[in-house]
């Protein structure tokens, strides 16, 4: 056995459930979905618990956009989920569907019904990716999705928070989430209310800065004794007496 053959067998095998290969269409997975799921099994075998879309794309002929779209679908319909520590993909949902024989309605796989008519959610992801200058990770996609579904923030409100983060040059989801939660605390629910709230904060900051400058001007100069120094004046042409 030559070295290449030894390496081939040393890499081991990936166990793929036969029922998955036999019934993946019945539970609502497409051929492309199946390939990504198999890759997740393979990465898990290699101790890569949370592969990026770039890594998965490198092993397939799918673009990163396609990989992210598929991962989003798998997450949305509970085929996969994140682990408790958000550091791995959990495929137990897929196994439950296979064991339970649960079939997903194909019509529900196309998009989120609350946003499907205008493709709002997809455009929201694209807006974030454009402002961040990179592709979003699956975890970031999940976070934005939860803002819309779990927290019930409107897409316009999320974009307004994103714009505020861009203006502050702080491009991360944690900062944007703090903005959204602050608005929720203040019962800000619309884009117009958020913009008014931002304007109010800017005006308050401007007023505070102005008062600080005025207070600085009113503050008397510190006494250093220099004001008691008298400079003798002499007329031009006056000669010094000897």
Notes on the protein architecture:
The protein has helices at residues 3-10, 18-23, 31-45, 53-58, 64-76, 92-100, 120-132, 138-149, 155-168, 173-185, 191-218, and strands spanning 81-82, 89-90. It is mainly alpha-helical and 242 residues long. The protein has 2 domains: 12-101, Winged helix-like DNA-binding domain superfamily/Winged helix DNA-binding domain (Arc Repressor Mutant, subunit A, Orthogonal Bundle), CATH 1.10.10.10; 114-209, Orthogonal Bundle (Arc Repressor Mutant, subunit A), CATH 1.10.10.630. Strands 1-2 form a two-stranded antiparallel sheet. It is elongated, with a radius of gyration of 31 Å. The N and C termini lie far apart (117 Å). It comes from Oenococcus oeni (strain ATCC BAA-331 / PSU-1). Residues 16-99 form the DnaD N-terminal domain. Belongs to the DnaB/DnaD family. Residues 195-242 are annotated as: Disordered.
Question: Could you give a short description of this structure?
Answer:
This protein is mainly alpha-helical and 242 residues long. The chain contains eleven helices and two strands. 57% of the residues lie in helices and 2% in strands.
Give short descriptive properties of this protein.
DNA replication protein DnaD, 2% strand, DnaD, 242 residues, Arc Repressor Mutant, subunit A, 11 helices, elongated, two-stranded antiparallel sheet, mainly alpha, WH-like_DNA-bd_sf
